[in-house]
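Hi R.,

As promised on Friday, here is the backbone we talked about, encoded as structure tokens. Could you run it through your design pipeline when you get a chance and send me back a sequence?
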């Protein structure tokens, strides 16, 4: 069916774009659409999705006070405004080439992602969770977070006092750790509305995109505002330039990873390494980062300062990197204060979003045209992951349509001989 040669209804455009954003490829989108009676080729799906993605990018970059802005302006500011950002990766072709793999190197490019979440908010008289979650006391789970080999230790139960243990902690009957497991009297804020932005633009441009989105959603008017990120410098440059009046919070997962690797570096025995990690992790969780840094400095003195050619796996270099990381971020590690103020202390929402983005755009078999193809699919995927129905609103109210009937080729003119015979 030559859908590329006729006008497409908004309803069909919406189905095409949603199928293209929620499946792993345009070919799979074609299969889904045909299953429901729409004979749309993968080429048409790619063309339609690309056009809508470019339109979304234009609206994303519109002035926040303009009617062209993509985000819907809420009636009132959120009780708690949460901004999180992080990087991702996908593969792009070299500019000016069509289909096929054309790139120098492996073609990997960084994507930048952000989620802006309005959330429930409560404050507490005391720290609502003075002890760390069980998942941070699970050797296998912590090793997975740190992306390294797990320690062979007796288990988290061996490091807890008898009062902290439950009957299920005895023996080998411990339940697998679930970091997002629902807990009784869970203090953490709950997500209400999430909107998503993503781009391959530089961090300076991306910071402006985040600020426009936040202004449109009235985040700067919220009574409680928080900005979470990892240790990447561009995260905190964006915070400084656009969100300086938001409380800055370093995602607790990242210092946890550094401390786990540091403990392994200074203790050859697994049990000793695990005990050291737990002590440092608990100290950071309780806000006593100064004491942790003091102990790390003592280890650095004992082991020695790493040389310029020291490998990253050397114990001296691991300790030095951990000290640098914690020292640079200590002002963003006041975790008991944050919990008492009802603020999130991990970027769990962001980590989940990066996986959701990667499902559609990242894969060894996926290559996107640079720059338009990559930017367009990021806009469409981000719109489908936003809770404000922005993709459907855009398609229903988009001015005009690029999917118009192509001009027909001119009819061939009869020859002079044919005209004479006809006369």
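Update: got your reply. Pasting your designed sequence below so it's all in one thread:
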């Amino acid at each position: 069916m030559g859908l590329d040669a006729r006008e497409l209804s908004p309803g069909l455009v919406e189905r095409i774009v949603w199928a293209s954003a929620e499946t792993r490829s345009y070919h799979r989108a074609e299969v889904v659409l045909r299953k429901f009676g729409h004979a749309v080729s993968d080429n048409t799906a790619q063309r339609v999705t690309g056009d809508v993605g470019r339109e979304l990018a234009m609206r994303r970059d519109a002035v926040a006070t303009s009617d062209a802005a993509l985000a819907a302006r809420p009636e009132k500011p959120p009780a708690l405004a949460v901004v999180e950002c992080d990087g991702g990766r996908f593969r792009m072709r070299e500019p000016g080439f069509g289909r096929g793999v054309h790139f120098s190197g492996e073609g990997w490019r960084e994507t930048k992602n952000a989620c802006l979440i309005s959330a429930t908010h409560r404050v507490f008289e005391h720290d609502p969770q003075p002890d760390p979650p069980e998942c941070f006391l699970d050797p296998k789970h912590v090793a997975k977070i740190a992306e390294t080999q797990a320690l062979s230790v007796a288990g988290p139960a061996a490091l807890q006092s008898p009062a902290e243990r439950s009957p299920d902690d005895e023996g080998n009957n411990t339940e697998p750790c679930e970091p997002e497991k629902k807990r009784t009297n869970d203090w953490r804020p709950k997500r209400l509305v999430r909107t998503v932005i993503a781009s391959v633009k530089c961090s300076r441009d991306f910071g402006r995109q985040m600020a426009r989105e936040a202004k449109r959603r009235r985040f700067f008017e919220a009574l409680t505002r928080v900005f979470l990120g990892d240790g990447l410098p561009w995260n905190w440059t964006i915070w400084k330039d656009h969100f300086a009046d938001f409380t800055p919070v370093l995602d607790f997962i990242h210092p946890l990873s550094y401390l786990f690797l540091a403990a392994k570096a200074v203790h050859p025995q697994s049990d000793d390494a695990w005990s050291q990690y737990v002590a440092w992790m608990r100290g950071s969780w309780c806000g006593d980062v100064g004491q942790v840094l003091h102990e790390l400095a003592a280890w650095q003195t004992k082991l020695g300062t790493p040389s310029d050619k020291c490998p990253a796996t050397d114990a001296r270099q691991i300790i030095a990197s951990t000290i640098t990381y914690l020292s640079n971020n200590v002002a963003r590690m006041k975790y008991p204060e944050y919990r008492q103020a009802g603020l999130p202390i991990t970027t769990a929402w962001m980590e989940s979003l990066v996986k959701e983005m990667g499902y559609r755009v990242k894969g060894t078999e996926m290559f996107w045209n640079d720059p338009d193809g990559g930017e367009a699919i990021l806009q469409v995927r981000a719109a489908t992951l936003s809770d404000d129905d922005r993709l459907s609103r855009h398609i229903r109210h988009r001015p005009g349509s690029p999917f118009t009937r192509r001009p027909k080729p001119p009819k061939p003119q009869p020859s002079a001989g044919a005209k004479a015979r006809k006369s």
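One thing I noticed while checking it: DSSP finds 15 helices and five strands in the chain.

Thanks again,
M.
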